[in-house]
Write a structure and sequence with these properties.
Blueprint (H helix, E strand, L loop, with lengths): L1 H13 L3 H14 L15 E2 L7 E2 L2 E2 H17 L3 H17 L10 E2 L2 E3 L5 E3 L7 H6 L6 H6 L20 H8 L3 H21 L9 E2 L2 E2 H17 L5 H16 E2 L2 E7 L1 E5 L2 H18 L2 H17 L33 H16 L2 H13 L1 H6 L5 H12 L2 E6 L3 H11 L5 E6 L18 E6 L2 E2 L6 H9 L1
Parallel strand pairs: 12-13
Antiparallel strand pairs: 1-2, 3-4, 4-7, 5-6, 8-10, 9-10, 10-11, 12-14, 14-15
Length: 474
């Protein structure tokens, strides 16, 4: 589950445990070597059906890809690599090409199977390759291609091949005495050929059907993923894409009746707690990235909606469904994290971050009470509560904010964010005078100042970017 590895990444950084970080990065690299990750088109499948992570269940879910976009972006910030950067670019390209809807939102899922010319269904047909197809494209005859993807009679799946590489590029180059530059050239040629071949065979291997439901929480996870991708790769337009998606999501799904759950031709269904919470987190992510006051204002609106609509009887957590529901199953408090973090864990993160930004103790108190209310469950089985554990790091070590004000604030923020990922810190910037409490009285026209804050108390401002970087990395 992405949230497990995000927590381990954060834990490894905060506690300075290199073995934990090595484990996380090794796992992410292996996930992205193919099988689970579509090396040709981009994008992640739901899960592997074998212990080698080679044979996937071919369905692709928006919530997986949004969360993994965020996870790989955080990994890129902590330990930069061209491989991670390429995963970010290719995953976003895949989402735009295969999961974008005409209304500007993103569909829920791509089917695992594809229709065939004789009206049957073939699982993984769009993603797998026969030896004959690879022969036709003059790929099979290339020894380096076969070795890179470990192709041979032993590795076929139901008579076809899933592109999955067993070695890193560095390991492959060492084994076959190639330079990284030479391998990069070969890979460019291979993937260009495969993409063209995939397009040419669409009559016999049409792309899988897209579920056109645009679910608010899943689209919000994608916004957060794009926001983090911007901090990792600030020159590639991820922030603009995130802003466009978030604006469309708000316009289409936040109505006079409150937030809706999904959009198919029209907004429908009352929004659930996870819809409000993930959208609120997306607003805070974009407030950090673009420093537009409307995002904070909308986050505050969503937070008040949560307090009004989802109160829990014990005061410790929020119900996942609104006040009007009557079915017993809808009264259950959702606290266990799964393929998506639980609605209450998401809400607690939202309130903790909002409290830190605004200095409003009520939000921080709600988050802290929710965390303390489930601590016994966490000790019994931690992996089911990894998003709560992430919040516990903030509770144990304190939260930080880096506030940058001045004419070079945006550039300074991007430089800091790209240099390191400190899990306990939020980053904010402003290049003009502002009234929000986090910026008020801090802007000067002639210099860019850095304010390092902890638990709502800030140190004296500094003007040295080198000193700011030292605080950011400490």
């Amino acid at each position: 589950m992405p949230t497990n590895y995000q927590y381990l990444l954060q834990y490894g950084i905060v506690t300075d445990q290199s073995s934990v970080l090595d484990y996380v990065h090794h796992t992410l690299e292996r996930i992205s070597y193919g099988g689970l990750y579509d090396s040709v088109h981009g994008g992640f499948t739901r899960y592997a059906t074998d212990r080698f992570w080679k044979i996937p269940h071919f369905e692709k879910m928006l919530y997986d890809n949004g969360q993994l976009l965020q996870l790989f972006a955080l990994a890129q910030r902590q330990r930069p690599s061209e491989h991670y950067a390429q995963i970010l670019r290719q995953t976003w390209s895949f989402l735009q090409k295969y999961m974008a809807l005409p209304n500007g939102l993103f569909g829920a899922a791509l089917d695992a199977d594809s229709p065939t010319p004789d009206s049957a269904r073939e699982e993984g047909g769009f993603y797998t390759w026969s030896k004959e197809e690879l022969d036709t494209e003059k790929l099979w005859e290339q020894e380096h291609f076969r070795e890179y993807f470990d192709l041979g009679p032993h590795s076929a799946w139901e008579g076809k091949y899933i592109l999955h590489r067993p070695l890193s590029d560095e390991e492959f180059c060492a084994k076959f005495e190639l330079s990284i530059k030479d391998l990069k050239g070969l890979k460019t040629q291979w993937f260009d050929t495969l993409l063209k071949a995939s397009g040419a065979r669409e009559e016999s291997h049409p792309k899988p059907a897209l579920d056109p439901k645009a679910i608010v929480s899943w689209n919000s996870l994608l916004v957060s993923g794009l926001a983090q991708a911007h901090w990792a790769l600030p020159d590639e337009g991820f922030d603009r894409s995130a802003a466009q998606l978030l604006e469309q999501l708000w316009t289409l799904t936040y109505t006079d009746q409150g937030l809706r759950h999904q959009y198919i031709d029209k907004a429908s269904g009352e929004g659930y707690l996870d819809d409000y919470s993930t959208l609120g987190l997306a607003m805070l992510d974009m407030f950090s990235v673009q420093s537009d006051a409307k995002y904070l204002e909308r986050a505050l609106t969503l937070a008040q909606d949560i307090l009004d609509l989802f109160p829990a009887a014990d005061g410790m957590a929020f119900r996942p469904y609104g006040r009007g529901v009557k079915a017993a199953w809808q009264q259950h408090l959702e606290v266990e994290d799964n393929v998506i973090p639980s609605a209450n864990a998401l809400c607690a993160h939202f309130f903790a971050r909002l409290g830190a930004i605004t200095g409003t103790s009520n939000y921080s108190k709600c988050a802290s009470e929710a965390l303390h209310g489930i601590h016994e469950k966490v000790f019994r089985f931690g992996p089911n509560y990894s998003h709560w554990l992430s919040l516990a790091l903030h509770e144990a070590f304190g939260h930080h904010e880096m506030v940058i004000c001045g004419p070079q604030a945006k550039e300074s923020a991007e430089a800091l964010a790209g240099s390191h990922y400190p899990p306990l810190a939020q980053l904010f910037w402003s290049d003009h005078t502002r009234d929000e409490s986090i910026f008020k009285g801090r802007f000067q026209y002639d210099k860019t100042l850095f304010y390092w804050c902890q638990n709502n108390a800030c140190d004296r401002p500094i003007s040295s970017s080198r000193e700011a970087l030292s605080l950011w990395k400490d």
